[in-house]
Amino acid sequence: MSGPELVVFSLLGLAGVGSAVAVVSGKDLFRSTLFFGSFLLSVAGLYFTLEASFVGIMQIFVYVGGVVVMILFGIMLTQQEGARLNASLERRLTVAGPVALLAGILIAAIMTTSFKTVREVPGVDIATLGKLFTNDYVLPFEIVSVLLLAALVGAVVVAKEREK
Amino acid sequence: MGLEYYLALSAIFFGIGLYGALTRRNAVAVLLSIEIMLNGATLNLVSFSRFTPAKSTGQVFTLFIMAVAAAEVAVGLALVFALYRAAKTVDVDEIDMLRG
Predict the structure, then answer these.
(1) What is the dihedral of CA A64, A70, A73, A77, to 10 degrees?
(2) pTM
(3) Which residues of B are less than 8 Å from A99 in CB distance?
């Protein structure tokens, strides 16, 4: 990575980390969800810098357009006055230590490993992805569509009010 | 170069999500943290697909993960609603109906 690429990566990375921290530490759940939206947008931006434009667009459609809206409904339907959002400070500190250690070990391992990387790979176009979905990965593709249907029907059944 | 930065960033995302999943008390907030962890994992897949020769597979699986994550959120929220109706709370520390 060089010059402008590094600048764009750093900006998107900072925006992502900042909004992710706001999501897990904010006191207002509604605001946390809006920060979750900006986290998802910065990850979509990172996908664009990785030349995965279709994945980035789908990230915006499915996550920002679908998941965030659904979670906002979930919050509004289950909101309670005076409910505490965070665990006690003691518990937060006991969790933060091991988690930071885990992330540190991961990053150290990543930085010391030499990956066999290719420098100039042209981006994958939608046609290639479409061919993969309808040839190599046609079975998982169909299974995922059945899974989605089953999950949505199941969600309606679980959330429906029971008749007594 | 380059790949390491993306992998390190996704490790940070994963860590933040894990912290949130373990410290949040609201079930919906736990769900949000789990989504952050999932995004860290998919960022990993897409960066490998950009920087290594077997390049499209990572994107294909990222799209699969997105579909599964959408289903997961739908089922998760339905469970939260059912829980709210049964226990009148969504505080994960107070829900211990299955405790013996």
Answers:
(1) -140
(2) 0.92
(3) 15, 18-19, 22
